[in-house]
């Protein structure tokens, strides 16, 4: 079951590459691997926490006001993460601090709260938060590796190819769209090939 | 009618609960965050002056800012430091700049900014060989950010020009010398607005402060 869940989060329902959720923060932070991984980890933490709370209180939330409730809960977690990082992990805060407020507007988190945690029990919601976070992080890392290498000839801040002139457009927003489109096309190509082979 | 009451009550409870949790966290972290900010400011201040100076806090009247700093060596006045801010691409960029009385920039340090990750946030980029494991373990490595470094030795009294063709950390020593001679900085690729904002922090008020300090005969 765990294996299936992992496959669901990383491949079949990958938040960025298949569901096309959270493209705005994905574009903003996938400019370097360091940023991508950092944002992925921070978002995964908030995703798991918000899934836990929402699946616990889903019975008491009237359907008509569920979205504002979810947003308040997510914003609360983000604020806690932000304050804790600032106070006790200043080094980490210097690296990640700028992404944390972006998580509030990350529709992956609201999307999972709405589509999964509000309909499933606690255990499954935690697993869902974890695998979706993992899928989000992996997708960010893939995009970030491509963009960082092509756009600034670096990986994790270190130079890669001697004599290669980087293409700055890959660091800018249009390059982000190109990269996402290429990776999505690849995934769709392989999926269609696989499905075609089975039928 | 009953329905609307139920909805409002549910929303109110969630909001109050969240508010309490945030207040509790803030109450417990607020002091630590302020201490952290003071430490950062102190570090930034020390970094904009050369080693071995004595830094004193002064309070100023109009047109001077309410707080500024004076650095002194045994042989006399070494320079002033001012906290300045300017509008960047997203929110304010706050810097501390150290200047000699002659207008020569001694050092520049970005205190805070909200620029776009990957583009504008490179105003404080440190081309470093640090790994995340070092960061997680909390070990610190002394690296210097290239963008602010290039302001050193430029003059605040003359217009600071922006060269968009290259980035300072990739320049040869010869090119660096040339940039310094023409009072020029290099822009961050894809973040001209952020580059200009940092320049504005220095050019906007600092020349006026220096002139005022000179005319008011403040020395030693």
- Poorly predicted tracts of residues of chain B: 129-133
How many helical stretches of chain A?
A: 9
Q: In which range does the helix fraction of chain B lie?
A: 40-55%
- What's the SSE pattern of chain B? HEEEEEHHEHEHH
Major sheet strand order of chain A: 1-2
The low-confidence runs of chain A, each spanning 5 or more residues with pLDDT under 50, are none
Which percent range fits the helix content of chain A? over 70%
Mean pLDDT of chain B: 84
Strand tally of chain A is 2
Rg for CA atoms of chain A: 18 Å
Helix-strand topology string of chain A: HHHHHHHHEEH
Rg result of chain B:
22 Å
Largest sheet of chain A: 2 strands, antiparallel
What is this structure's SSE topology?
The complex is a heterodimer of chains A (199) and B (220).
Chain A: H1 2-12, H2 23-29, H3 33-57, H4 66-88, H5 90-96, H6 100-104, H7 107-117, H8 122-152, E1 154-155, E2 158-159, H9 173-198
Antiparallel strand pairs in A: 1-2
Chain B: H1 2-48, E1 54-59, E2 67-73, E3 76-87, E4 92-99, E5 105-112, H2 132-137, H3 146-149, E6 161-163, H4 173-181, E7 184-186, H5 192-204, H6 206-215
Parallel strand pairs in B: 6-7
Antiparallel strand pairs in B: 1-2, 2-3, 3-4, 4-5
Q: What can you tell me about this protein's structure?
A:
The complex is a heterodimer of chains A (199) and B (220). Chain A is 73% helix and 2% strand. Chain A is built from nine helices and two strands; from the N terminus they run ααααααααββα. Chain A has helices at 2-12, 23-29, 33-57, 66-88, 90-96, 100-104, 107-117, 122-152, 173-198; strands at residues 154-155, 158-159. Chain A has a two-stranded antiparallel sheet. Chain A is globular and about 60 Å long. Chain A starts with a helix and ends with a helix. Chain B has one domain (49-215). In chain B, strand 4 and strand 5 form a beta hairpin. Chain B is globular, with a radius of gyration of 22 Å. The model of chain B is unreliable at 129-133 (pLDDT under 50). The chains are: A mainly alpha (199), B alpha+beta (220). At the A-B interface, helix 3, helix 4 and helix 5 of A face helix 1 and helix 2 of B.
């Amino acid at each position: 079951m765990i294996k299936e869940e992992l496959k669901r989060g990383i491949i079949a329902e990958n938040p960025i590459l298949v569901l096309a959720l959270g493209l705005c923060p994905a574009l903003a932070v996938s400019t370097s691997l360091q940023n991508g991984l950092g944002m992925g980890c921070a978002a995964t933490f908030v995703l798991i926490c918000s899934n836990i709370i929402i699946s616990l209180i889903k019975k008491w939330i009237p359907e008509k006001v569920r979205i504002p409730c979810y947003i308040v809960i997510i914003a609360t977690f983000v604020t806690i993460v932000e304050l804790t990082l600032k106070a006790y992990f200043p080094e980490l805060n210097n690296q990640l601090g700028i992404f944390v407020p972006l998580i509030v507007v990350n529709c992956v988190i609201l999307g999972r709260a709405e589509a999964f945690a509000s309909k499933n029990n606690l255990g499954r919601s935690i697993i869902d938060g974890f695998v979706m976070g993992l899928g989000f992080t992996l997708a960010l890392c893939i995009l970030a590796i491509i963009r960082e290498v092509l756009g600034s000839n670096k990986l994790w801040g270190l130079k890669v190819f001697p004599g290669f002139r980087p293409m700055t457009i890959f660091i800018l927003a249009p390059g982000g769209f190109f990269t996402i489109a290429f990776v999505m096309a690849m995934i769709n190509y392989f999926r269609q090939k696989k499905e075609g082979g089975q039928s | 009618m009953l329905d609307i009451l139920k909805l409002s009550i549910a929303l109110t409870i969630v909001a109050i609960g969240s508010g309490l949790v945030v207040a509790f966290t803030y109450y417990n972290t607020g002091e630590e965050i302020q201490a952290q900010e003071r430490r950062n400011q102190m570090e930034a201040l020390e970094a904009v002056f050369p080693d071995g100076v004595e830094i004193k806090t002064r309070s100023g009247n109009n047109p001077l800012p309410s707080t500024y700093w004076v650095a002194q060596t045994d042989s006399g006045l070494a320079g002033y430091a001012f906290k300045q801010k300017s509008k960047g691409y997203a929110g304010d960029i706050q810097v501390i700049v150290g200047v000699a009385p002659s207008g020569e920039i001694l050092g520049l340090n970005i205190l805070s900014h909200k620029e776009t990750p990957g583009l504008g946030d490179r105003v404080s980029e440190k081309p470093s060989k640090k790994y995340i494991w070092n960061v997680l373990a909390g070990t610190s490595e002394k690296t210097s950010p290239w963008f602010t470094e290039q302001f050193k030795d430029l003059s605040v009294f003359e217009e600071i020009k922006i060269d968009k063709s290259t980035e300072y950390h990739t320049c040869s020593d010869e090119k660096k010398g040339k940039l310094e001679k023409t009072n020029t900085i290099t822009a961050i690729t894809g973040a001209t607005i952020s580059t200009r904002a940092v320049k504005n922090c220095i050019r906007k008020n600092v020349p006026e402060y220096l002139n005022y300090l000179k005319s008011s005969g403040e020395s030693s």
